[in-house]
Design a protein that fits this description.
Layout: H1 23-31, E1 34-35, E2 43-44, H2 53-65, E3 69-73, E4 83-92, E5 95-108, E6 130-136, E7 151-165, H3 171-177, H4 183-217, E8 219-220, H5 225-246, H6 253-259, H7 265-293, H8 299-313, H9 318-325, H10 329-346, E9 348-349, H11 352-369
Parallel strand pairs: 2-9
Antiparallel strand pairs: 1-8, 3-7, 4-5, 4-7, 6-7
């Protein structure tokens, strides 16, 4: 199994890099770089999003779409909306070109999956018919700039025609495919499910807000340079491996850099360095709070976390889980949960207007001091 990469945040069950050294030793090594600020009594907001009728309807639509059935059509020509199974060969100046041919391809007419004129050119043709389409690639053509604006012929054979039949939403349909007897009962269950998700999201955001403020309140004076280097090297190597995997799709290393918002490899390394230091800020504060409060982990707690992963993903051995997540991922996961319980127990919930007022007053005080 591939080793898990560093996570964007340490917080609340996020995926994080395997760490080295036991918790107490790690805290001692970090303490020389961290001056803890206020981490108790932090104010936070809890904004739970309202459930909209549109969200409920979207879930209903997905439910009905999931029950659609495909039916083969044999007695008519191709129409808009049909799914046609085709063989096609593309040629330019009589020569086939890479990526221009396929067999047994299912194409939905009207999906605009192919260049202009391809799908509409099949409408009205029968099963078994050979169709010749003289077309032109668009200019520009982002999918393959080398083909932009060029003339092309596609020889297409229509193998079959299918249509998708979407059932009508009825009480009977709901009763046959859910644990509910009516549309209204099912809609209410959907609404409650979305409400639960929104509450969980709000709680997660609140925890992130509290922990971010605890980190911001602390003073970070430096880093273990060996750890920084290792994390940067790991992330850089992960990126390079990812870039190499894109090569088979025709993307160069520079393309992958650009797709990820980097203008050069130097910019990538700078971004990774910032990312690693942000991660270490969180990690060091976490360990130092745990040490200050006497928070520790036990083997039983760690084994329970490992077992949950094994049960969830049907992994047979503990060793496989540890190889993927790293030897101390689960120690830090348990530690994070315990520290967050401590922080949230003392944190103070305020409404958003109170927090905005407090921030505005703080900004005003800073200006007065200047």
């Amino acid at each position: 199994m591939k080793k898990q990469r560093i996570g964007a945040t340490l917080l609340v069950g996020a995926m994080i890099l395997s760490l080295t050294g036991c918790g107490s030793n790690k805290a001692k090594s970090y303490s020389k770089y961290v001056n803890l600020g206020e981490y108790k009594g932090i104010e936070y907001t809890m904004e739970i999003a309202e459930v909209t009728d549109e969200q409920v309807q979207s879930r209903l639509d997905s439910f009905v779409q999931g029950l659609k059935e495909t039916e083969e059509v044999t007695d008519r020509a191709v129409k808009d909306g049909d799914i046609v199974n085709i063989d096609y060969t593309g040629t330019m100046d009589g020569e086939e070109f890479d990526g221009g041919s396929a067999e047994g391809y299912d194409l939905t007419i009207g999906s605009n999956s192919f260049i202009n004129g391809f799908e509409t050119g099949l409408i009205g043709h029968e099963i078994g018919e050979d169709v010749s389409l003289d077309l032109q690639f668009p200019d520009p053509y982002d999918s393959n700039p080398d083909l932009a604006g060029k003339d092309v012929n596609f020889a297409v054979k229509i193998n079959s025609i299918k249509v998708e039949n979407v059932p009508t939403l009825t009480d009977a349909l709901v009763k046959d495919n859910t644990d509910y007897d009516t549309i209204d009962a099912y809609k209410e269950s959907i609404r409650k499910d979305i409400e639960k998700q929104n509450k969980e999201t709000a709680e997660s955001n609140a925890k992130k807000d509290v922990f971010d403020k605890a980190v911001a309140n602390s003073e970070i004076t430096g880093y273990d340079e060996a750890e920084v280097k290792k994390l940067i090297d790991d992330e850089f190597n992960n990126f390079k491996q990812t870039a190499e995997s894109y090569a088979s799709y025709g993307y160069s290393y520079e393309d992958v850099l650009s797709m990820n918002g980097f203008t050069s490899e130097d910019a990538l390394k700078e971004g990774i360095t910032d990312y690693v230091k942000e991660y270490l800020n969180q990690k060091m504060v976490l360990y130092c709070i745990a040490d200050a409060e006497g928070i520790k982990t036990t083997e039983e707690e760690i084994d329970k976390e490992i077992q949950e992963i094994m049960d969830t993903y049907s992994v047979k051995t503990k060793e496989e889980v540890i190889e993927y997540y790293g030897e101390e991922y689960f120690e830090v996961k348990v530690l994070t949960d315990k520290v967050m319980d401590l922080l949230m127990a003392s944190a103070v919930q305020v409404d958003s207007t109170e927090e905005e007022t407090t921030e505005a007053e703080g900004s005003s005080d800073e200006k007065d001091a200047e």
